[in-house]
Amino acid sequence: MGIRTGVRYRKGLQDGRAVYANGERVPDVTQYPPFGGIIGTLAGLYDAQHDPRHTETMTYLCPSGDRVSTTLMPARTIEEMQARVRCDYLRTDLTYGVMGRIPDFVNAFLLDAAGSLEFMGKTDALAKLTDYLDLLRDLDLASTHALIDPQSDRSRADTPMEAVQIVAESAEGVTVRGARMLSTLAPVADEILIGPFLPRQPGEERYAVSFAVPADTPGLKIVCREPYDTGAPAFDRPLTSRFEEGDAVLVFDDVLVPRDRLFIAGDVDAYNGMVAHFPGFTGLQASIRGAAKLRFLTGLAAVVARANGRHRSARHQEEIGELVAHIGVAEGLIQGAALDCANRIQARAGLRPPPGPGQPGGNMPVGLTAIMVFFPQVLTRAVEVVRMVAGSGVIAMTEQDLHHPELTGLLDSLMHGPDFPAERRLQVMRMAWDATGGQFGSRQALYERLYAGDPVGNRVRFFGMPRRSECEEMVERLLDS
Ligand SMILES: Cc1cc2nc3c(=O)[nH]c(=O)nc-3n(C[C@H](O)[C@H](O)[C@H](O)COP(=O)(O)OP(=O)(O)OC[C@H]3O[C@@H](n4cnc5c(N)ncnc54)[C@H](O)[C@@H]3O)c2cc1C
Prior knowledge:
There is one protein chain. The protein is an alpha+beta fold. It has two domains: 6-274, Butyryl-CoA Dehydrogenase, subunit A, domain 2, CATH 2.40.110.10; 279-480, Butyryl-CoA Dehydrogenase, subunit A, domain 3, CATH 1.20.140.10. The protein has 17 helices and twelve strands. The protein has helices at 6-13, 33-48, 55-58, 78-94, 104-120, 123-139, 240-243, 268-276, 281-308, 314-348, 366-390, 399-402, 408-414, 422-436, 438-450, 455-463, 466-480; strands spanning 18-21, 24-26, 59-61, 67-69, 143-146, 165-169, 173-184, 191-194, 209-214, 220-224, 247-258, 262-265. It has a six-stranded mixed beta sheet, with no helix packed on it. Strands 5-8-9-12 form a four-stranded mixed beta sheet. The longest helix has 35 residues, at 314-348. The chain is globular, with a radius of gyration of 23 Å. The mean pLDDT is 96.
């Protein structure tokens, strides 16, 4: 069928899914005002695929002759990888990098998972996942995922009994029960992937389960966190009103997963190896998204600085300059991640040697390293810079106050910036607050920290990597010389 329009995406959401928000069951997510902004944004991305300016970048011709999304292109060569980079760049640029779970992320995750299953020789699982990728591509569906178990007791390393697990098997498939947290975009996605992240232990086979189901699957309850879009106009909430993705706890209340959508059931090795052997699509897409957000926050800091004259102070020039430098590093990381992903795929096909000591990535794809350590740091720093540059300017009135008949002339003359009329200055400050403070901004800050899992655990993993031993050997060499 090929690429959809925004209208078809909206229609697909009217499926009777069990979404709960603010204490009520939402009968139709397309008519629920807090989801209106994000549905409009995603519909806009679907429509953009048909825009002659973007079609070549956002889509490609698949062997069936249909135009399909480049986000699902199983790139093998560096040229194909660059086509993916251009597409991800455009889509994250159109969404200012603030959509952490733009569906492109899960598309990349699934391509990575297929690469892992192929590498491990898990042919049955690979065949099902390949068919599923074809389905997503042909129907142009929007996917999201949930990888993390409920926070029942984080002092324990084993899987909590509340986690999604297999409770029954039949010829049709398996029945699963339990919860996953969190799933960003779940209320407005077509498909939900339950995938692996933290390893399962031997004996935890019933929890070693990976599958994908439509959002309207009977027994699946999508329980949203408090929605942040309360109808404030775009002037006051430019990001919340467009990019409030929504996060939800997923409750599987005895859900039947048919065999063809059940990728892994009880195979602990396959479950644990799925993420461990990623060739690198996920990290590449997520790095491009992180770089778009970094560019946006850097631009925001610079515009805020112009709005209050801080652009003339050396201190703030230094801070914004630091962010500009990080963008250069991020762009280099993206190119490195694209090359690294292509090299890994070609190495697995026997076309080149695998990356070894001194080569980019080592045993961790470049893009994953970037999203586990680099981007959480620089995006946190970028928020800090916006805050330092803006000062108290972000604690601001609404657009309505500015236009109140008793205030408007006064405020126009008192609240301007250098070469910035009062209204423009206020608009910039409202954007800065939405991006870094308020509910949307606070959630974004937490999300960037936890985007690729627990950052503390991630760094400990890097401590255990061969790269550290290589560095130690370098020192030993000099000591022994
Ligand atoms: C807004 C948002 C959206 C999300 N969306 C998704 C999604 O779409 N899909 C998905 O699968 N997951 C999602 N997540 C979940 C995310 O993957 C997890 O938050 C992340 O893996 C960390 O797990 P946790 O929240 O359970 O934290 P925990 O593992 O419970 O850790 C709690 C805190 O303790 C810290 N910590 C842990 N160990 C130590 C230590 N030894 N010393 C000091 N501090 C420590 C951690 O860094 C963390 O800050 C989302 C999270 C957020 C906040």
